[in-house]
Amino acid sequence: MTEASETIPTEATGPASSLPSAAPTAAEVKRWREDFPLLSAEVNGHPLAYLDSGATSQKPRAVLDAERNYYEGLNAAVHRGAHTLAAEATLLFEDARAAVADFVGAEEDEIVWTSNATEALNLVAYAFSNATVGRGGAGAERFRLGAGDEIVVTEMEHHANLIPWQELAFRTGATLRYIPVGDDGALDLDAAGSVITERTRLLAFTHVSNVLGLVNPVEELVSRARAVGALVVLDACQSVPHLPVDMKALDVDFAAFSGHKMLAPTGIGALYGRRELLAAMPPFLTGGSMITTVTMESAEFLPPPQRFEAGTQRVSQAIALAEAVRYLQGIGMDRIAAHEDALGKRLLDGLGRIPGVRILGGQAAGPRVGAASFDLPGVHAHDVGQFLDDQGIAVRVGHHCAQPLHRRLGVTASTRASTYLYNTTEDVDRFLAGVAQTAEFFGVDA
């Protein structure tokens, strides 16, 4: 197995692991892989090569056990009951919040539970629009938008970090602008200088492109936003699972990530927000569990994070997410990053040798995670995916919820292979052999 001698250089920094930063050995990856029951399955008569972790990751037994054990031995409503089970469930629920906060370099009260990252991003967008109509008082002034104000995103955003801002612009009269992508797939940072201006109130961008695997220059983009007094929202869905991330070091104001992409169940995500900003923001969802006093005419709200957590909470999922965090910390995020760096290089190098393959963003310089998307001219991505699936190789096909980026790069769809800590060089090599066979079968020319 190819080993990396150092971690992938990124803008994402965090607490150093006690483990070496070198990529793991093949034997170590094999041991990790054995923790994931589904990876021992066969698909269409072949051993499963799961290369779709960018969409959703597999779950280790420790995480599956954590959720099941909660339901079997401690199931109760949190923050509501006075009985022993409720008190113990609440303690475990809040311990999970503390574990996740520590994992991303945040304070405990700076983590808001959501159903997923999409909800987290919408929470911020709707809180801004609620502030715009006068909710939140004087402290919410910095969230209020109107005609003449501008919201800036990038051309490579996942729809979850684009459509909420389109809607916010529509509701407030603000203008939505975007930093374009160059021909190589990287952000055009020269153009960013004319897009981010004194009118910019909010900059929202992805840490890692879910299509290209490129790690964006967070420090430079945040610096540009700070220079004009804009707030920064980071889509960290593809970075928190794969790289050491410290929100304080990144100096962003808000960030969103999802549990299901980092070994945890579906139905749990998190919003990171600076304490002082969360305290000033009006709520998005309202109802039970987020109030102090209610009359027939009005209500007063709890401080964050509970202010943003109306209704029955995602208790088992949060507990399982904390267990996923402990699993990742036990390996070391720097080692995971190094492993994926090696696999990513193998993916890109191998795809580059297959006649006719066009790697999206393949010419862009800079750090990456272990993911690559490609196009076989004349062959629909769904046909590529089906051909690979027949061999037990699971990949993602389509526009990956990033239609503008695909349109910019001149394709309607692509095939994406994305790796994680449990993938092996054999998985990558089977994928590359499958792509070569697909190209040959469909008669793709170089």
UniProtKB/TrEMBL annotation:
Annotated Polar residues bias: 1-10
Superkingdom, natural source: Bacteria
Coiled coil: none
Leader sequence segment: none
UniProt-listed InterPro entries: Aminotrans_V_dom, Aminotrans_V_PyrdxlP_BS, Cys_dSase_SufS, PyrdxlP-dep_Trfase, PyrdxlP-dep_Trfase_major, PyrdxlP-dep_Trfase_small
Catalytic activity: (sulfur carrier)-H + L-cysteine = (sulfur carrier)-SH + L-alanine
Enzyme Commission number, as recorded: 2.8.1.7
Pfam families assigned: Aminotran_5 (PF00266)
Domain Aminotransferase class V, residue spans: 50-431
GO MF annotation, one: cysteine desulfurase activity
The protein's enzyme class: transferase
Essential cofactor(s): pyridoxal 5'-phosphate
UniProt feature, compositional bias: Low complexity: 12-24
Keywords: Pyridoxal phosphate, Transferase
UniProt-annotated stretches for the region Disordered: 1-24
PANTHER family: CYSTEINE DESULFURASE, CYSTEINE DESULFURASE 1, CHLOROPLASTIC
Known role: Catalyzes the removal of elemental sulfur and selenium atoms from L-cysteine, L-cystine, L-selenocysteine, and L-selenocystine to produce L-alanine.
Entry similarity comment: Belongs to the class-V pyridoxal-phosphate-dependent aminotransferase family. Csd subfamily.
Protein name (database record): Cysteine desulfurase
Taxonomy of the source species: Bacteria, Bacillati, Actinomycetota, Actinomycetes, Micrococcales
